[in-house]
Write a structure and sequence with these properties.
- The protein has a domain of about 40 residues.
- It is built from 2 helices and no strands.
- The two termini are about 20 Å apart.
- The model has no long low-confidence stretch (mean pLDDT about 90).
Length: about 70
């Protein structure tokens, strides 16, 4: 399952680091709370979508290997 290995480019890594530093330097509690809530909600939806996608791939994979 090599397709599940995450490879990030240097540009992506630097963008992530920039965002992390911005969050760490923020002193406004209200903004941090809003971002935290939004990230939790987004993470939940992404995790749910990923589980559904992996389950779907797993369900169709046997039929794909039989065709080859």
């Amino acid at each position: 399952m090599d397709w599940m290995i995450i490879e990030q480019t240097l540009e992506e890594e630097l963008q992530l680091e920039k965002t992390v530093r911005e969050i760490k330097s923020c002193s406004n509690k209200e903004i941090l709370v809003e971002h935290c809530v939004a990230m939790i909600q987004q993470n939940w939806h992404l995790a749910k979508m990923l589980r559904q996608a992996v389950n779907h791939i797993a369900s169709i994979e046997p039929s794909l290997t039989l065709d080859n």
